[in-house]
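Chromosome partitioning protein ParB
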Amino acid sequence: MRREDVAGASGMKRSAGLGRGLSALLGEMEAIETAQSTGQGVEAIAISAIIPNQRQPRRKFDATKLDELAESIKAQGLLQPILVRPLSRSRYEIVAGERRWRAAQAAGLHEIPAVIRQLDDATGFELALVENIQRADLNPIEEAEGFQRLIAEFGHSQEALGKLVHKSRSHIANLLRLLDLPQSVRNMVLDERLSMGHARALVTARDPEKLAEEVVRLGLSVRQTEALARDEKQGGKARRSTGNGDDGGTADADVMALERQLSDSLGLKVQIAHDGAGGRLSVNYSTLDQLDMLCQRLSGERF
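C-alpha cells:
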C-alpha cells in the first residue's frame, strides 16, 4: 500500500474542539491494529525523522523497563510497529509507541517499522490515550489527566469514554476525583509512593497533603489510610480510654498508625494511651496461648 493510500484512509478532518464520533474512532483503532498485526501499510522510518508527541499522556518512563525492552529489541528486533502521523514530507510525530521508539534508540537501531496515519490533533491524542490505557501503562494521575483533557477539549462524556476504553463510568469518575488533590499529593502518585487506593482515601480529607506525607513516612496500607482520613474528618484525634474512668487520653494520627502496625505485627489488639512525654501501652489477649506467644516475642525466644 502506498503512503498516500494509508494517509488518505483516515484523513477526515473536523472542527477544533469537537471529539471524533465513537464509531469512527473505534474503526480507526481496528484499522491500525490490523495494519500492526499483518504488516500491511507498515514502513521503515529513520529514527531521526521521528519526534515524540507533546500531547503524550504518559509523563514517566521506567528506566529499568526501557533497558529491558532495549535488550529484547537488540535480540529480536522491534516486533510491533509504532504509530505516527506525518508533519511534513520527512518528519513524523509519534501517536503511540514512544516507549518502543526510545528503547529502539537505546538498542542502536537507525530505522523502525511504523504505521502512518493522517490524523488531526484530537484523534491523535485520543488514540495515544486509548493505546496507553489498553496496555495498562498509564499511572492513575496520567490516566485521569488524559480523561480530563478528552472531556474538556474534545467534548466526550464520561459514558462515551467508558465505552471507548472498556472501563466503567464509575472508574472514570473516581479517577477524575484524584485531580482534586493538591499537586504535591498527585506527584506522590506519579512517583508511585502512593497508589490509587491511597489517593482515593485522601481525596475527602481536610488536609490531604499532611496525611499523604504521614502515609508515606509510616508506610501505611490503603485500609490504614482510609481509617486515618476518617479520623481526621471527625476532628483529627481519636479518644482512647485510660481504663480508670478518665477519658482524657488521646491519640493523634501517628499514635493510631503505630497501634495498627503493632496490632498487625502481633496479631493482637494494641492500645496506646499517650499523654505528654509518657503513657501506657496495652496489649489484649484472649487465650493463654496468645499470652505465651507474646511473652516469647518480648523475651526474644523462638516459638
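Strands lie at 42-46, 50-51, 82-86, 92-96, 111-116, 238-239, 250-251, 269-275, 278-284.
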